[in-house]
Every structure is written in C-alpha cells, then in structure tokens.
Amino acid sequence: MRAVSFRFVCCAVLTLALLTGCGGQGTSGNSSSASAAQTSTKSMQVSSGTATAQSTVMVGQSFTVTAHVTGAPPGATLTFSVHNAPTWMTFNATTGVLSGSPTAGDVGTYSNITLSVNDGQASASTSPFSITVASANSGTGNAMLSWTAPTTNTNGSTLTDLAGYRIYYGTDPGNLDVVVNVSPGVNSYVIEGLTTGTWYFAVKSYTNAGAESALSNIASKIIS
Questions:
Q1: Full domain range(s) for residue 17
Q2: Last residue of a domain, one of 89, 105, 134
Q3: Model confidence pLDDT, tens digit, residues 173-212
Q4: Which of 79, 101, 134 is a domain's end point?
Q5: 140 in the same domain as 130
Q6: Which of 22-31, 36-45, 192-201 reaches the highest mean pLDDT?
Q7: By C-alpha distance, which of 138, 58, 54, 64 is closest to 103?
Q8: Rounded to the nearest 5 degrees, what angle is found at the Cα of 42, between the Cα atoms of 38 and 44?
Q9: pTM (2 decimals)?
Q10: Buried b or exposed e, range 74-92, using 16+ CB within 10 angstroms
Q11: What's the domain count of the chain?
C-alpha cells in the first residue's frame, strides 16, 4: 500500500505514516475500526461498515453507516432495511446507507440498531449496534491535522474513486470513539473545543465502494 505523509500540528510537527488507498490491510489497536459482528442466512452476510458496537458522534458532525454485503447471488436485486434507526438519520433502502447529522436535541444513546438485506430468497442482518450523540466539545483547545491525498490503490493501480477521509479521535488511544467525516477535497482539518488532557488522533481514507485504508499511526496532543 502506498504510504503518504500525515502531519499533526501542535507545538511541533509530528510525521505519521498514513497508509491509504482501496481496501487497506494493517493492524491497529483502535477499536473504532472494527465492524459490528456479522450474522447470515445461507451464505449471504452483511456488516455495518464503520459502525462499531458503540460508536460516538458529536453534535453537528455527520455520521454514515453503510451496509456491506458479501455472498449475494450474482445479479440479485438487494433490498435493505433498518431497525431502530435514530430519528435524526435517514436510510436509503436501495444502497443500504444510514446517515445524518445530530443536533443538540438529539444527545443520547440509540441502541439495538440493525441493518438487514434481502435478495428475494434469503436475508441477513448485522448484530445490533449503538450510536451515541455527545454534546459538542466544551473546551478551548484546538488540534490541526493535515495529510496528502492518496493517488494509488493497494495493488498499485490509480485511485479514481476516493470518497473522503475519516478522522478518529478521543482521550483513549485504544478507543478513538469520535468520528469526523471529511470530504475528498479537504486535506486538513481543525478539531476545536478540546478539553484539558491528552487527546489522540488518527485518519483513514475510504472509497465510494466502501473500501477503507488501514488506520494511520496515532498522534497525540496535550491540552492544558
């Protein structure tokens, strides 16, 4: 996979190896990169993509969950459904995409959400997952991150369907539970309102087809 530079700007500039491209492989201790467990009927499976068993989104930030299906018969027409979707999110039954941006009135935890798919013969569902809407950061600290856009897939071919980036951050390097989606034309981002303490940050790139890169190394900044 092609390595590109990722800079975290605080008192000094740190250099991270951000492995980007299509369907990256790699290891990371970040639990936010894990998909919800899969269940299936026959050989078809569906997973919830970027959603974890417990995902967190800040007020005003966008969050997207995409159903990824494997094992469906070739040429089958897939129909998606959702159970217990948050009221601030909208669902596309054709693409299996659940997305939205919560407001201050949406703060709270939304539990037992599942995505399902049916091909006319069999169906499959994700394991239940939750989405927690947290209040906007109330501190005064800021962190600026910047990176270089990837140009190739993991197999060396030209990357043509970059959909954007996902910034993961939090106060626990093993649980970066806040996710920010960034458009493909943006190569830097300032996270504001950080409270006192040590914050940790990492980045992934992803494609329109739903493939993700491996998580970058984790950078940190102390807010005092």
A1: 3-31+136-223
A2: 134
A3: 988 878 888 888 888 888 888 888 899 999 999 888 778 8
A4: 134
A5: no
A6: 192-201
A7: 58
A8: 50
A9: 0.49
A10: eeeebebbbeebbebbebe
A11: 2
Beta-carbon count within 10 A of 202 CB: 26
Question: Which H/E stretch holds residue 199?
Answer: strand 197-207
The CATH number linked to 40 is 2.60.40.10
Of 134 and 119, the one with more pLDDT: 119
| Number of residues that make up the chain | 224
Tell me the C-alpha distance between 1 and 144, whole Å. Answer: 25
Q: Cα–Cα distance between 199 and 184 in angstroms, integer?
A: 24
Judgement on whether residues 161 and 209 belong to the same structural domain of the protein: yes
DSSP 33: G
Residue with tokens 């994700």: 126
> Which residues make Cβ contacts (< 8 Å) with residue 12, sequence separation at least 6?
none
Residues 182 and 126 in one domain: no
Bridge-based pairing state of the strands 162-170 and 97-100: unpaired
For every residue of 54-115, DSSP letters joined together read EEEEETT--EEEE-EEESPPTTPPPEEEEES--TTEEEETTTTEEEE---GGG-EEEEEEEE
